[in-house]
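User: I've been going back and forth on whether these two constructs are worth ordering. Before I decide, could you fold them both?

Assistant: Sure. I'll take them in the order you sent them. The first construct and its structure tokens:
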Amino acid sequence: MENTRKKIMLVDDDQASRQQGRALLKDSYEVYPLPSAHKLFEVLEVFIPDLILLDIRMPVVDGFKTLERLKSDEHYADIPVIFLTASNDKDSVIKGGGLGAVGFITKPFSADDLYDHIEKCLKVYGKGDPAEEEEAKDHKPVILAIDDAPDVLKTVHSMLRDLYKVFTLPKPEKLKSLLTKTTPDLFLLDYQMPGLSGFDLVPVIRGFPEHKNTPVIFLTSEGTVDHLTAAVGLGGCDFIVKPFEMDVLREKIAKHIVV
């Protein structure tokens, strides 16, 4: 009988944390406790897990560097990663989210914390039937995210790719050329970018007849009434304050686009 249990790699240099995590999860998942990033990449050459639980503070190669390496390799880039951390300070959350982490679990963790984060993550990013996924690709709404910060674009892609076909554009000056090749159902525009701002790009978008009413959501670091007023005045339908959480981004988009 085929084993259908999800495979989870738990990477932590602390033996007690590895033992605790395995004890809490072994009845529901196949758990592979690993002491280092080096060991993780050795095992990844053998098989790809459904999820990686990754400690941030580790000697030699920490969690941030490990995640960067994962996301830079096409073989591992789609594996969802949840950070395990002794402190959920804002800077770590922002940095981890920018690198592509899909969640954070604070140590010491309870069984409920662990299960809730894992089940939510697997539901959103879990592997489906390959044939069904391939068939569904052409039916996904298209989102175009434009931001000069590569970390923001990686985060947006990671948070939305299960529901939408996501295109990212770090160079706003290439927007007009791109719109001759694809037709987005919604735009995410960075509020402030060098050269061309998100506001400058709205007339370019509206210059295409098929995008006269396409929803535009602005991404901004300062969410004030003035920002919202300016966004609406330029034809935007909403704005999202950076750094944003996955639930906020998905809920905002869901108001203006149907999956």
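The second construct, handled the same way:
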Amino acid sequence: MEQEPNAARLKEVIAGMPACRVAVVGDLMLDEFIWGKVSRISPEAPVPVVEVEKETFYPGGAANVARNLKEFTPGAAVLGLIGDDAAGSRLRTLLAEGGIGTEGVVPRSIGPTTVKTRIIARTQQVVRVDREKVSPPGPEERAAVLGGLDHALAGCRGVILEDYGKGLFDAELAGEVIRRARAAGCIVAVDPNPGNPLPWSGATVVKPNRHEAFAAAGVPWSEPADDPLQDGPLLAVGEALLAKWDTEQLLITLSELGMLLLTREGVRHHTPTKAREVFDVSGAGDTAVALYTLALCAGASPIEAAEIANLASGVVVGKLGTATLTPAELLASFAHHDG
């Protein structure tokens, strides 16, 4: 049976990551965080009054996947659509300042940049406000995204399709991205959205969470078993999705139970969660798909990649906001759990 990575192997995989160029294609967003404190209830309604202390902005959605990659490799690029507005301009600036390639970021002819605003009182999210208009790209926008992909594929080892259900992907565009990426010899990872059921055929790996997996398989929800390897409905769903999506690997994230990896070759591997404390799950799935893909590109086996992705996700949920982690934090977390 294949072994989980030890410290030396983890360092070897991380050392190989800077040479890996990975492009992310998907729904781009701007994440806004309004930080404050609550000291009273509004006299107008039974709601807290948040006294704002600061505001922060981060690349969100597919852009956050690229941001996670950038901590481990200089070769991170992102492709998708933004609005011709202040939020789009801010997002493009944040990406450029972060050293993330934006040649494939295309201004859309209609519709705003998707913005998610989270209001945080100390460490508690009070409310989230979404500003978005879901609409498919026009012919010129599709052509521009695919043209950006062709440019990004030069020297690329991996492509991630990040579907947040905001209108970028339909079956035709998703299929063409996968086809071109595989033709270029890339590892292809998909983070699907249950509200946009697409074939995703031909990917290396698809990464749903448990709810998304059951929805995609058309199977009624069942409560999880304590041991995912003894969870009959979950394993059946996994087998069904390996066939339905014609994918080599399936990585199902299981929240507090960690992750379950299934492969076409018959691997069934559960990695328990490595989270010490959970402050904020925002972006944890982005971290998982980014590190799993990058680890595969750097030569890790699927089991090694799953362990690395799970470890990385356990670090970011211990941070507030749309967080990333560094190689040093990943190694430190491994040493903590291994010790």
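Notes on the second construct follow. The chain has a mean pLDDT of 93. The chain has ten helices and 13 strands.
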